[in-house]
Design goal:
Elements lengths: L1 E9 L3 H12 L4 E4 L11 E4 L1 H10 L2 H4 L8 E6 L5 E5 L6 E4 H9 L7 E2 L4 E10 L2 E8 L4 E9 L6 H6 L5 E13 L10 E5 L3 E7 L4 E9 L7 H12 L5 H8 L7 E7 L2 H5 L4 E2 L2 E3 L14 H22 L6 H31 L6 H24 L10 E2 L2 E2 H5 L1
Parallel strand pairs: 1-2, 1-10, 2-7, 4-12, 10-17
Antiparallel strand pairs: 3-6, 4-5, 8-9, 9-10, 11-14, 11-15, 12-13, 13-14, 16-17, 18-19
Length: 411
């Protein structure tokens, strides 16, 4: 079977759904291909900082989420080896930690029911040259379906097939891994809306309330493989933490919802791989983790993906409006190139900041200890947070062309 679409997005994660919503806002329908049978919520929860909420404002979905989650204004970092406690103040808007699935559902609700095609596994990508600067892309699915599109956007995560097709550099292992999950207290957990973090030379752990009964928690270790059954992962974390980490954290881990536990090595794409890499080819590009996988140390992977969606929607929307509501392949290549130019340096900077923040949390060399204990939270973290969190990716263009509403035209 062969199909034709204006825009195909590979992956129905945060970047994929947000990009589809952004395009809908500018009058462009996109087909989202998702290999799973339904929306995936791997990772359980995520933290969104002020830059992410500005992107959600631009997408028109922030109002659905802000009433559900209370912002955290501050946190505490406790060195369990020395007992020293440092206070961390977040930007005045605070940060909100929310269920990943709730965010995905909020985005998916904005799309037509036939906009997401589940159980669609990508087998191959083909470039179809049209002459001059114009080009199209064809995606071949494992079920034999071929879908031709004027624009192809890879939002297919850390192990992106679209990024591989573009020739982007392979990922780098940070040397760390993380166990993450939810803790459930049916009668209420009683913790304040704060973000406590505990660390020693090789491990870092923490938790933050999602609501009165649920908390998101994590455990990051250096050089540890904790992959296995959920019960074993929980035991491994408790064994690593029993000697030094406080009882309140251990109690959170004991209340883990085992079905929510996940383990993953922390990978990233090198900043120079983003700066010098081929992030687009004609009408094909990438967004989200497919472009800039990063370590979670600043909690900005989701925020950067939302930024991508708005910027990509803005450039494609401007091209469509300049062409009377039509997608012109030659002009679309320029729009995608402009998107890449705008995002390349911002993405490389966020990846670098995340890596440096995480690197300073681990290690027993004297200079790492000095930076961690004397400079990280007192000076460096505040500078990093302003650099990363205080950022506005802009707004989407108006979608009218003359007297015609493009969104109605497309429907």
């Amino acid at each position: 079977m062969e199909m034709m679409e204006d825009v195909v997005i590979v992956g129905a994660g945060i970047a994929g759904l947000a990009t589809a919503v952004a395009l809908k806002r500018v009058g462009v329908r996109a087909l989202v291909l998702e290999r799973s049978e339904g929306l995936r919520a791997t990772g359980t929860a995520l933290t969104l900082t002020p830059n992410a909420w500005l992107a959600l404002d631009a997408l028109g979905v922030s109002h659905k989420l802000t009433p559900l989650y209370t912002p955290s204004i501050k946190g505490y970092v406790t060195n369990v080896s020395t007992g020293e406690v440092q206070e961390v103040l977040y930007p005045r808007q605070g940060i909100r930690t929310l269920h990943r699935k709730v965010l995905l559902e909020a985005l998916a609700e904005e799309l037509a029911t036939d906009s997401i095609r589940f159980s669609s596994r990508l087998a191959a990508i083909q470039s179809l040259e049209q002459g001059g600067d114009a080009s199209m892309a064809a995606v071949h699915l494992e079920d034999g379906t071929t879908i031709k599109s004027k624009v192809l956007i890879g939002c297919d995560g850390v192990h992106s097939l679209v990024a591989r097709w573009l020739g982007l550099a392979e990922l780098v292992h940070s040397g760390r891994s993380a166990v993450r999950g939810l803790a459930v207290f049916p009668q209420g957990h009683g913790f304040k809306q704060e973000f406590p973090i505990f660390m020693d030379e090789n491990n870092r752990a923490g938790f933050v309330p999602l609501n009165d009964r649920q908390l998101y928690w994590f455990f990051v270790s250096q050089g540890e493989n904790m992959e296995g059954e959920p019960e074993q992962m929980q035991r491994d974390v408790l064994e690593k933490c029993t000697e030094k980490f406080p009882s309140e954290y251990l109690d959170v881990v004991r209340h883990a919802d085992l079905s929510s536990l996940s383990w993953a090595p922390l990978m990233f794409r090198s900043p120079w791989g983003i700066i010098f890499g081929k992030l687009s080819k004609g009408n094909v590009t990438v967004a989200g983790d497919a472009m800039h996988p990063m370590t979670p140390d600043l909690g900005n992977g989701g925020g950067a993906s939302l930024e991508d969606a708005v910027v990509l929607g803005r450039h494609i929307g401007n091209s469509v409006m300049n062409n009377g509501g039509l997608i012109i392949p030659g002009d679309m290549a320029k729009a995608i190139d402009d998107y890449v130019k705008e995002r390349r340096w911002r993405a490389a900077m966020v990846v670098t900041a995340s890596y440096l923040s995480g690197r300073m949390h681990h290690g027993d060399r004297w200079w790492i200890k000095f930076l961690r204990d004397r400079a990280l939270y007192k000076y460096f973290f505040g500078w990093l947070s302003r650099l990363v969190f205080v950022y506005d990716c802009g707004r989407l263009p108006a979608i009218s062309f003359g007297e015609m509403d493009l969104s109605r035209k497309k429907d």
